[in-house]
Amino acid sequence: MGTGSSPCASCKLLRRRCAKDCIFAPYFPPDDPHKFAIVHKVFGASNISKTLQELPVHQRGDAVSSLVYEANARVRDPVYGCVGVISYLQTQVSQLQVQLAMAKAEILCIQMQSKSAVAHEVQQMDLSNKSINGSSQLMNISSESFWA
Amino acid sequence: MGTGSSPCASCKLLRRRCAKDCIFAPYFPPDDPHKFAIVHKVFGASNISKTLQELPVHQRGDAVSSLVYEANARVRDPVYGCVGVISYLQTQVSQLQVQLAMAKAEILCIQMQSKSAVAHEVQQMDLSNKSINGSSQLMNISSESFWA
Predict the structure, then answer these.
(1) Are A1 and A25 in contact (CB under 8 A)?
(2) How far from B10 is each of A46, A146, B24, B143, CA to CA, in Å?
(3) Cβ-Cβ contacts under 8 Å, B130 against chain A
(4) Rounded Cα distance, A38 and A33, in Å
(5) How far is A41 from chain B (nearest CA, A)?
(6) Angle in degrees, 0-180, between the axes of helices A33-42 and A45-53, rounded to the nearest 10
């Protein structure tokens, strides 16, 4: 008997006596009959009971949660169930990996362009300075030749 | 009876006569007994039969494939099954989304730094030119004052 005096949701649905050590009772309280109904519909009470019995007590709660999730997915999508969700997520992972690879390539490209732009500006500046220095030197030469 | 004269893998395991219109036969051939054994262990033959009956014929093949995948995942990981795969993929999606957001932010940052670096070089070049032109003008003035 799980909580209080009511039989657990599983025993209520299966119309059987809810024993003190009922394996379902801790996970299927009487106030949430849908939770057991859906896993019973997809997996069957006997398979759930076997799965829980084969697991240590501290892992049974997680197992029930994952079975409920899986059963809901199968009821929502009877053809693909959870596998539909997996397929969608795998596509999302692939798309994100492509986008990330493109972004990384863009970073490299911009970094190279940036270096190249700065180098170009420096080169232009050097050329411009040389040209100006050339004129100044020419002027110095004329001034010097005047004083010579 | 699915293929040839042998009963299908399901009817063989369930020790029953494999009828001509057996719902399992097209998907569970006798040469792959493990395929039915695993879905039977996880979902139960009765639930699989119900699921297939509720689907149009052209979707049953996909449904069997997803049930086999799901059953294999549950046998491999009795606590989380397919939900463990979903959880892993969701984490991967989140990590990739963060990495992509960081890469996009880095692109913006580099683009701004690049513009700023070019602007700085141009400014430096202008200042340098002005300084050289200033000296030249000074020299012109001295030359002019000499001729004046």
Answers:
(1) yes
(2) 19, 113, 6, 110
(3) none
(4) 9
(5) 7
(6) 100
Nearest to A8 by CA among A17, B64, B56: A17
Structural contact between residues A72 and A38, judged by C-beta atoms closer than 8 angstroms: yes
pLDDT score at A21: 92
Q: Model-level pTM?
A: 0.78
Residue B77 vs residues B74, B81, B85: alpha-carbon distances, Å: 5, 5, 10
Closest-CA residue of chain B to A120? B118
With an 8 Å Cβ cutoff, are B107 and A103 in contact? yes
Copy the structure tokens of residue B54.
């509720």
Question: In chain B, which residues have their Cβ closer than 8 Å to the Cβ of A90?
Answer: 89
Q: Do B44 and A41 touch (CB under 8 A)?
A: no
Q: How many CB pairs under 8 A join A and B?
A: 159
pLDDT (tens digit per residue) in A98-147: 999 999 999 998 888 877 777 777 787 777 767 766 665 655 555 555 45
Rounded to a whole number, what is the distance in Å from the CA of A32 to chain B's nearest CA? 22
Structure ipTM over 0.90, yes or no? no
User: In chain A, what residues touch B128 (CB-CB under 8 Å)?
Assistant: 125, 129
Tens digit of each residue's pLDDT (9 = 90 or more) over B2-59: 445 689 999 999 999 999 999 999 999 999 999 999 999 999 999 999 999 999 999 9
Q: What is the pLDDT of residue A25?
A: 95
Interatomic CA distance for residues B125 and A122, integer angstroms: 8
Within 10 angstroms of residue A108's Cβ, the number of other Cβ atoms is: 10
